[in-house]
Specification:
Blueprint (H helix, E strand, L loop, with lengths): L17 H10 L6 H14 L13 H12 L4 H9 L2 H4 L4 H8 L1 H15 L7 H14 L3 H16 L6 H21 L3 H15 L1 H35 L4 E7 L2 H11 L10 E7 L2 H14 L1 E2 L5 E2 L12 E6 L5 E8 H9 L1 H4 L14 H15 L3 H6 L9 E5 L5 E5 L4 H8 L1 H5 L1 E6 L2 E3 L11 E5 L9 H4 L3 H33 L4 H6 L1 H10 L4 H9 L5 H8 L2 H5 L11 H4 L8 E3 L8 E2 L11 E5 L5 E5 L3 H6 L6 E2 L1 E3 L9 E10 L4 H11 L4 E7 L4 E10 L2 H12 L4 E6 L13
Parallel strand pairs: 2-6, 13-15
Antiparallel strand pairs: 1-2, 3-5, 4-5, 5-6, 7-8, 9-10, 9-11, 12-17, 14-15, 14-16, 18-20, 18-21, 19-20
Helix pairs in contact: 1-3, 2-4, 3-4, 3-9, 4-7, 4-9, 6-7, 7-9, 8-10, 9-11, 10-11, 11-12, 22-25
The protein binds manganese (II) ion.
The site of manganese (II) ion has 4 residues, from loops.
Length: 742
């Protein structure tokens, strides 16, 4: 059995034209420029001339109706003009610059804003997404009028939705419920909200709408006598208390009843409080007096009393609410408020500049209330309501920004977030491999703060690795912790590589094969004893100096192996001999705790030198002197540079090799004098080479120094020797040739 669907709950007026719009503006006492609006009207009519709506009507009927709704809502002339023009950018060939030339920058900007909202597509359907989308629309519109026009546009589209396909009806009605009616609610425009919701309910859930409609009508028929009796008694009681008030009663809006049924999981037959009485008083004190009268005459239901006068809703709604039980056990709600509060309750934002104050509302620091309160403050200063409205720039959610993915998904971020936060929001790997970003189609630096409504596209490369600097760029804790985690893992791997290097070197010195030793049963025993699960953990400890290689060797080798005399220095390139890793003492990698690193063999930095670390692939961090010429080449990949500092107190007795080249006159005994200086300075010669064939002496030493000061002192001593022409610190490599002379 199919019942005929009732008529839509809200229907457009039959005929609306420029005259009707003027009539509305006049009715609300709005000043306007007739010539201006006429020219806008003609322009719109001309632009949409050959277009038709789905209903077959001329397209222009739509923008005209939208303008009419805005005039009816008491909005200003500019709003009405924008209502007329709101579809010309999207649906005709008109450009923004034409609008600007014809009607001024203000109107052009507003129309452009409405067009942008219309173009943003709402894709995914979950609650969080809807909330974000809503906030985004509110936040990205720089002028509140953009949203007002969009709401009127949506309202007319809902009024004429019957001409659309079933699929379009469902989609548009759903979007209205999820996005637009909550926005109207947020702005306190409860009449628009109610119209949007009831229309959406009608098209989205036609069967339920029909059932509810039948039930409510039945109930109203049977309750009519009761309602009239209650109204009469209320009137008498208020008169007796000398309270002058208007009394009305109405069925609550269908969609709010429907939601209530859904929420409470009850059937329409169990529905009782679908009725609301409204008492409109002259002043504030009468509201509380009337409230007392109601409670004297009917029994209140506990917990249903709400004082929204003392504690207004975020949208500044003010009223007293209570639910009482009538004679036959029929509960009904009573709302009590002043005329002024009633207007604000119906019209929300539209009403705010009409009243000089909306009552007192202390006690809440909710920033939404603060925002609206601020509006009221402005409105006190600005006499002309039109000026007030145009000054109205909204920033409803000052701590957040809302941005789009290329697919239209909306995400919210804390203000100050960058494309890098966005990348980590998509996926950890997208973050790690992020090399750049396009915002609104343009390439921007990764540190660029995101703005409301930005469309963000991330560029990745599989070669890319996170860099420590990124920690300063991101604003979300998610991105920060992902980057930290990556860096820590990386650091651990580097430490393990260094530990392995130490171990293998020491074993080779004893002429043992690392592979053999490390495969033996003794290792397993040792690891177990130390509570380590794998060899890498041991390497890690070695790198951090938490265990010395000596201790490890003692545990892994038997006495005989340990007594094996050290192998002589291997012949061949001298470089081999100085290939050593420094101990954990003197180096600190900034932000890495006490991670070790190896000193670069090209520049051989010593304590006191300014440093820069370079993250190698698989060989840990190599530390260069800031003066090292190789660093320029390495800096090409900036992300792999890492800040490094010497620890404050290098362990005493530790020496650092440094390469010096001395240019000398070829004098006999020169070498002896040089070595004397070195000995005097308490230093050792690691290697040296001398080339005297050119007639001049070119002597290269690798000497050990404690620090920069020590080095400088030695250099000065060299320079003061007779026959020494120049002393140069070698930074490119150590000893270049293998010719050794003594
Ligand atoms: Mn439209």
């Amino acid at each position: 059995m199919t019942k005929k669907l009732p008529k839509p709950p809200v229907r457009p007026r039959r005929k609306v034209d420029l005259e009707t719009i003027f009539e509305r503006l006049n009715h609300h006492g709005r000043g306007y420029d007739e010539v201006f609006l006429k020219s806008v009207y003609d322009f719109t009519e001309e632009k949409h001339r050959d277009q038709k709506r789905k209903s077959g009507e001329p397209y222009v009927t739509h923008p005209i109706y939208v303008a009419y709704l805005l005039a009816d809502l008491k909005f200003d002339e500019t709003c009405v003009a924008v209502g007329l023009l709101h579809d010309v950018l999207e649906d005709t060939l008109t450009t923004k610059s034409v609008l600007e030339k014809e009607f001024g920058k203000d109107v052009a900007e507003l129309v452009d804003g409405v067009t942008k909202i219309s173009k943003t597509e709402y894709v995914r359907r979950d609650e969080l997404q809807a909330e974000t989308f809503r906030k985004m629309i509110l936040a990205s519109a720089r002028d509140l009028r953009v949203i007002l026009v969009k709401l009127a546009d949506r309202l007319h589209n809902m009024m004429t939705l019957e001409h659309m396909s079933p699929e379009a009806k469902r989609r548009i009605a759903g979007e209205t419920l999820e996005i637009y009616s909550p926005i109207a609610s947020r702005l306190g425009m409860s009449r628009v909200q109610g119209d949007l919701e009831d229309l959406a309910f009608y098209f989205r859930y036609p069967r339920q709408f029909g059932e509810l409609d039948t039930k409510v009508r039945d109930k109203m028929r049977s309750a009519r006598g009761l309602l009239q009796r209650i109204a009469r008694r209320l009137k008498d009681a208020l008169d007796a208390a000398d309270i002058d008030a208007e009394i009305s009663y109405r069925v609550k809006r269908y969609y709010s009843i429907f939601r209530k049924l859904q929420r409470q999981g009850i059937d329409i037959s169990q529905l009782y409080d679908f009725l609301a009485f409204r008492i409109i008083t002259h002043d504030l004190k009468d509201t509380y007096a009337a409230f007392g009268v109601v409670h004297q005459n009917w029994r209140p239901i506990p917990g249903r009393f709400k004082d929204y006068i003392a504690m207004p809703k975020p949208n500044l709604y003010q009223s007293l609410h209570t639910t009482v039980v009538g004679g036959k056990g029929q509960p009904f709600e009573v709302q009590i408020r002043t005329r002024e509060m009633d207007t604000i309750a119906e019209e929300g934002i539209a009403a705010h500049w009409q009243y000089k104050s909306a009552g007192s509302s202390q006690g809440s620091n909710d920033r939404n209330i603060l925002w609206l309160r601020q509006l009221l403050e402005w409105q006190k200063e600005v006499k002309d309501p039109r000026e007030f409205l145009s000054a109205l720039k909204i920033d409803l959610y000052p701590d957040e920004v809302y941005v789009f993915s290329p697919k239209g998904d909306v995400s919210s971020f804390p203000r100050g977030a960058t494309p890098l936060d966005f990348a980590y929001h998509i996926h950890t790997d997208v973050g790690h491999q992020c090399t750049g970003a396009r915002v609104n189609g343009k390439l921007v630096p990764l540190k660029t703060p995101l703005a409301n409504g930005d469309m963000v596209e991330i560029i990745t490369s599989p070669q890319r690795r996170p860099s420590r600097d990124w920690l300063n760029i991101v604003a979300t804790s998610r991105a920060r912790s992902k980057i930290r985690h990556w860096l820590n893992t990386q650091q651990k791997e580097e430490a393990q590589a260094i530990g392995r290097k130490i171990m293998e070197r020491e074993l080779r010195k004893l002429r043992l094969q690392p592979k053999k030793v490390l495969a033996g049963p003794k290792l397993e025993e040792y690891l177990q004893r130390e509570g380590l699960s794998k060899l890498d953990d041991l390497y890690y400890r070695l790198a951090y100096g938490r265990v010395s290689y000596r201790q490890v060797l003692d545990a892994l080798l038997d006495e005989q192996q340990l007594e094996t005399p050290p192998a002589p220095e291997p012949p061949g390139p001298i470089r081999r001999a100085v290939d050593r890793v420094t101990g954990a003492g003197p180096l600190i990698i900034k932000g890495h705790g006490d991670l070790m690193a190896s000193l670069a063999k090209c520049c051989r930095p010593v304590p006191g030198d300014d440093l820069m670390g370079y993250v190698t692939r698989g060989r840990g961090i190599t530390v260069h002197s800031l003066e090292c010429p190789n660093l320029k080449t390495l800096s090409f990949d900036e992300s792999r540079l890492i800040e490094v500092e010497w620890a404050r107190q290098p362990s005493s007795g530790q020496f650092f090799p440094v390469s010096l080249t001395l240019e000398t006159e070829d004098q006999k005994g020169m070498l002896a004098r040089l070595t004397e200086v070195i000995a005097k300075e308490g230093s050792n010669i690691r290697q040296f080479e001398a080339d005297t064939e050119t007639g001049r002496g070119l002597i290269t030493f690798v000497v050990e120094v404690r620090n920069r000061k020590h080095l400088d002192r030695m250099c000065t001593a060299f320079e003061s020797l007779e026959g020494v022409i120049r002393v140069m610190r070698e930074m490119r490599s150590s000893v270049r040739s293998s010719s050794r002379r003594k």
